[in-house]
Specification:
Layout lengths: L6 E7 L4 E8 L1 H8 L9 H20 L4 E8 L4 E8 L4 E8 L13 H4 L7 E8 L9 E6 L11 H13 L3 E7 L4 E8 L15 H19 L3 H6 L2 H9 L4 E3 L3 E2 L5 E2 L5 H11 L1 H10 L2 E5 L6 E5 H9 L13
Parallel strand pairs: 5-12
Antiparallel strand pairs: 1-2, 1-10, 1-11, 2-9, 3-4, 3-6, 4-5, 6-7, 8-9, 13-14
Bound molecules: zinc ion.
């Protein structure tokens, strides 16, 4: 039987410059899907892509020392125009997509990136690190990679795109296995630790021979990780996966992160933010909408929450002297 709770497992390979993480988003991922209106349910290949993005986002957020959101976005030129997963430093995550038109049919429920987001070869994947307390004028850090490799070969899986990004932008050798269905979104990350580290490595005293040995260790472990099938990742618990893959390795495991300390569904939308958006739209535009309908109803694409502003709320939006939006009683 599957573990029912969402968990993030971190581990090290004793004496080797290799670390790993395994994430299983279960109840938290199901919550993302449940919050979509029935009329707006994504097709299965999109649900799988979003699940993989959520799992990958959690792994990347946990992998970096950064006090801000990790935002994974795919901009497509196929039926999937945008897919996004955001993970906050406390591992609260949310995900959504914009799909226009039909996806090709599939029996497995899985579709490669080239038919969903990279039909014309113009698809892009953006990884943004958005600082939590951004100073005015400060830009978030963003890396953008195409959905093809160095020899222009199309990358068909999200895991390949992110491995490519980690190597190009962070100079980090990374092996990623990702998979998702409607019950679970899961990921395994194996990474070679940066060479300049102190830790258990020999500092700057390393010879070429040592370096080759360290590469061999990473290569062996990455090779073992790559034997994990999507099916195994989706159905086996963390203990079983790690035992099966790495039974000959000495693994140091940390207590799994779960509950509110682990990955969990969370949306950052608020009435205040929607009020700001309406204010930016301008008084004329807002009033013109309100002559056609009794209230402005703004739905959050991530969590399904609805924020409604009637004529009185709107008038307050444009006359207020404080920053507080109308109707919000629990600010600060
Ligand atoms: Zn929301």
């Amino acid at each position: 039987m599957n573990e029912m709770t969402t968990e993030l497992h971190k581990f090290l390979f004793d004496g080797l410059p290799v670390r790993g993480m395994l994430v299983r988003l279960t109840d938290s991922w199901q919550e993302v899907l449940r919050r979509r209106d029935a009329s707006e349910t994504f097709e299965e290949p999109v649900r799988q892509l979003l699940g993989e993005m959520a799992a990958a986002g959690v792994l990347m957020q946990s992998n970096i020392q950064f006090n801000g959101a990790v935002v994974l976005q795919i901009f497509g030129d196929g039926p999937v125009k945008v897919a996004v997963a955001e993970v906050q430093p406390d591992l609260g995550f949310r995900a959504t997509a914009k799909v226009v038109g039909e996806l090709p049919s599939t029996d497995s429920g899985h579709l490669p990136l080239d038919v969903m987001v990279n039909v014309g070869g113009e698809g892009r994947c953006a990884i943004t690190l958005d600082p939590q307390n951004r100073m005015p004028g400060q830009q978030p850090y963003q890396g953008v990679v195409p959905l093809h490799g160095d020899k222009r070969e199309p990358l068909l899986q999200l895991s390949e795109v992110l491995e490519h990004y980690m190597l190009q932008s962070e100079q980090l050798d990374t092996k990623l296995i990702l998979a998702a269905n409607d019950s679970i979104a899961a990921g395994l990350l194996i990474q070679r630790l940066p060479m300049e580290g102190t830790g258990n490595l020999a500092g700057g005293q390393r010879s070429d021979e040592d370096e080759i040995g360290l590469n061999e260790a990473y290569n062996r472990i990455a090779y073992l990780a790559a034997t994990l099938t999507r099916e195994e990742l989706l159905t086996l618990d963390a203990d079983t996966i790690l035992r099966r893959l790495f039974w000959e390795e000495d693994i140091i495991r940390f207590d799994p992160m779960k509950g509110l300390e682990g990955p969990h569904f969370a949306c950052t939308c608020s009435r205040e933010r929607v009020g700001t958006m309406l204010r930016n739209l301008g008084r004329e535009e807002v009033e013109s909408i309100l002559t056609e309908q009794a209230q402005i109803d703004v739905g959050c694409e991530f969590c399904g929450e609805h924020y409604r502003f009637d004529a009185v709320d709107a008038a307050e939006l444009f006359t207020e002297t404080t920053d507080h939006p109308p109707g919000s009683k629990s600010l600060q």
